[in-house]
Amino acid sequence: MEIRGVDVDEQGRCAHYRSGRDVVANRCATCGEYWACHACHAELADHPFGRMAVTAEAAVLCGACGHRIGYPTYSTAPACPGCRHPFNPGCALHAPLYFEV
């Protein structure tokens, strides 16, 4: 599993988001890669972040265990369904950057 970004650790935390709960990577619809955050994508990619359809499967990747989920599950789950690692509830504020909501 590869999570792209700036200074990404083993669970997907990047230079911009490093709390214990920042383990989610979002898939760019344009390049198909999982990114630690929108700021990492803006710094490293040569294209705008392509927002995923809310119906897309595997749009979100848990950096703790590699479990892939869709937006409906991610948007309502306080933790990864695969490993129960808690997600950062503040990430909901960024949903329009990653998903066609």
Automatic annotation (TrEMBL):
<protein>
    <recommendedName>
        <fullName>CHY-type domain-containing protein</fullName>
    </recommendedName>
</protein>
<keyword id="KW-0863">Zinc-finger</keyword>
<dbReference type="InterPro" id="IPR016694">
    <property type="entry name" value="UCP017292"/>
</dbReference>
<keyword id="KW-0479">Metal-binding</keyword>
<dbReference type="Pfam" id="PF05495">
    <property type="entry name" value="zf-CHY"/>
</dbReference>
<feature type="domain" description="CHY-type">
    <location>
        <begin position="7"/>
        <end position="85"/>
    </location>
</feature>
<keyword id="KW-0862">Zinc</keyword>
<dbReference type="InterPro" id="IPR008913">
    <property type="entry name" value="Znf_CHY"/>
</dbReference>
<dbReference type="InterPro" id="IPR037274">
    <property type="entry name" value="Znf_CHY_sf"/>
</dbReference>
<dbReference type="GO" id="GO:0008270">
    <property type="term" value="F:zinc ion binding"/>
</dbReference>
